[in-house]
Amino acid sequence: MLDDLRALQEEALGAVQAAADDAALDAVQSSFLGKSGKLPLILRAIGKLDPKERGPVGRAGNEAKQAIEAGLATRRAALIAAADADLADSEWVDATLPAPEGVQTGGRGGSIHPITALVRDLEDVFLSMGFETLDGPWVEDDHHNFGALNIPKDHPARDMQDTYWLTDGNLLRTHTSPVQIRAMADHKPPIRAVCLGRIFRNEELDTTHENTFHQCEGFFVDRDVSVGHMVYVLKTLLSEILGGEAEVRLRPSYFPFVEPGFEMDVMFRGDWMELLGCGMVHPYVLEAGGIDPNEFSGFAFGMGIDRLVMVRHGIEDIRHLMSGDLRFLSQFTGGLEG
Ligand code: PHE
Fold first, then answer.
1. Residue 219 CA: which ligand 1 atom is closest?
2. How far is 194 from 224, CA to CA, in rounded Å?
3. What is the pLDDT of residues 25-81, one digit of tens each?
4. Ligand 1 lined by 131 (C-beta under 6 Å)
5. Looking at ligand 1, which atom is closest to the CA of residue 177?
6. Percent helix, percent strand, percent coil in the chain, to nearest 5
7. Could you tell me the distance, in angstroms and rounded to a whole number, from the CA of residue 52 to the centre of ligand 1?
8. How far from chain centre, in Å, is Cα 162?
9. pLDDT (tens digit per residue) in 266-300
10. Residue 204 DSSP label
11. What is the Cα–Cα distance from 253 to 266, expressed in whole angstroms?
């Protein structure tokens, strides 16, 4: 009988392998393990055996049953996986293909958001100047957004940026400058990094103020870095973005994390346009980032992106940008390349 069981197990596993779908597996299962299946049929004869043989035969019967069940489960899983793989092939859609002739698309092709388009252009220029792009979280802590940037608690400079505080004591970042701190945490000089991203301020909304907007942070630390290097980088950047050779000017300004600090204006269509804050990274900030200010110096700048998008496209109200309004967005169908 032990031989019969072994032969049966082999026969069953062969049938399991040969089953091509779920229904076939069901059939195999009932023909071998079902009430009047082949295995129970053999086992029914156990009662007629010599009592001494019953134990080993019973055990072998159980083992055969388990082996067949395991084989069935493995085969079922394999069939499902194969079906899924087929589905990925058969259902694959190339969303970039033009619609077949005669199919109505409603005239609404997708387009690149004008902010995304400018962000990509800026990233291209920075990349060509050897900068790497970094990311940072929108939800920041006090230390990264303020403390490590030389803005201690109760410092009046905190009022320059109306902050959305969260109930857990964290905040929505009010500028991209916290990424300077994050850059120093895992990079040693020379550091050339930019972060282009979303920021949040609790502003009264009007045509030039949004509570959600975008900044481009630049951070450059090395030996003997000077204001001249900063002006060169910014001028190159603005020339690339605005076209032609950009005319820029620096005005002294104050940000706690730079010294000296400036605002940079750029000549645009006959007028000076305020565009960004910048300056030489404050020694306290370098020190807090574990960089010796006697050995290294650097510059940083923070540029408003939305402003630049507005002048680029002649947009008169900043609130259009984040509105998601299709009447606005559909005007930027310059192709998916942006
Ligand atoms: N973080 C400043 C702001 O949001 C801009 C800035 C960045 C100024 C870096 C100087 C250096 O206003």
1. 9
2. 20
3. 999 999 999 988 899 888 888 888 888 888 888 888 899 999 999 999 999 999 999
4. no
5. 1
6. 45, 20, 35
7. 89
8. 27
9. 988 888 989 999 999 999 999 999 999 999 999 99
10. P
11. 16
Give φ, ψ of 66 to 5 degrees: -65, -40
Q: How far apart are CA 303 and CA 276, in angstroms?
A: 4
Test site for ligand 1: of 175, 216, 251, 306, most ligand atoms within 8 A of the Cβ: 175
Q: Is the model's pTM score more than 0.85?
A: no
In the chain, where the domains are located: 2-90, 115-329
Coil, helix or strand at residue 5: helix
Q: Which helix (DSSP H) or strand (DSSP E) does residue 301 occupy? A: strand 297-304
Domain made up of 115-329: CATH architecture? 2-Layer Sandwich (3.30)
Q: How far is it, in rounded angstroms, from Cα 313 to Cα 222?
A: 36
Pocket of ligand 1 contains residue 279 by CB under 6 Å: yes
What is the rounded distance in angstroms from the CA atom of residue 116 to the CA atom of residue 207? 20
